[in-house]
Amino acid sequence: MDFALETDDWKRNAYLIKKSGRRNIYAYNGVIVKEINTSRWNNLNLLDYNNYLILEKIISGSDFERNFVKIHYENNYIISEIVKDFDGSISNNLLKYNGVITENFWKILENLLEFLIRKNIYFFDLNKGNVLVKRISRDEIIPIFFDYKSYNKKYFLQLNLLFKSEKEKKVWRRFERLKEKVN
């Protein structure tokens, strides 16, 4: 991805997708731009990017490489491609997806989580807003991860997460809760 945000002028022509307490997310010129909107979370995009760099080494060349959005870090912005379905429409997250979530989708997500756990990567932030549904054909959908800030996050009051077995349990609880909320 070759893209540069040299000045703040880009915001005048950008479309605000989401505004949250931490970041604003824009669509601009064919890419997604995540901007920190408070000094309290000043390093959030850098954390997101550093986690992605670790993850990129692990998934590179694997069957799951297509399940992750590539990101770029520049001037404290995260820049990524816009994920599109086979027909050119923009992929939705599980919150906005109107189609049927197939058993194959859940199996791919389950296999992906198993792969990451074997590599000591724990996605604790599994929720409907953080998983995209990409339609790769009329009949096939796959999960896509695009937010890397919260994997392996340490919760200081949850001392049980010092143990690998407890981290795994938490991932699988989140996975089952996600399935229940979507289905």
List the helices and strands and how they pair.
Blueprint: E1 15-19, E2 23-28, E3 31-36, H1 44-59, E4 71-74, E5 77-81, E6 92-93, H2 103-118, E7 131-135, E8 141-145, H3 164-182
Antiparallel strand pairs: 1-2, 2-3, 3-5, 4-5, 6-7, 7-8
Helix pairs in contact: 2-3
Question: What does it look like?
Answer:
The longest helix is centred in the C-terminal third of the chain and has 19 residues, at 164-182. Helix 2 runs antiparallel to helix 3 (164-182). The strands form two sheets. A five-stranded antiparallel beta sheet has the order 1-2-3-5-4, with helices on one face. The mean pLDDT is 86. With 183 residues, it is α+β, with helices and mostly antiparallel strands. Helix content is 28%, strand content 21%. It has helices spanning 44-59, 103-118, 164-182, and strands spanning 15-19, 23-28, 31-36, 71-74, 77-81, 92-93, 131-135, 141-145.
Highlighted features:
183 residues, alpha+beta, three-stranded antiparallel sheet, 3 helices, 8 strands
The portion of residues assigned to helices is: 25-40%
Q: Tell me what portion of residues adopts beta-strand conformation.
A: 15-25%
Q: Helix and strand string, N-terminal first?
A: EEEHEEEHEEH
Work out the number of β strands. Answer: 8
The residue-averaged pLDDT reads 86
Distance, first to last CA: 35 Å
In short:
The protein is 28% helix and 21% strand. It has three helices and eight strands, in the order βββαβββαββα. The radius of gyration is 17 Å and the shape is globular.
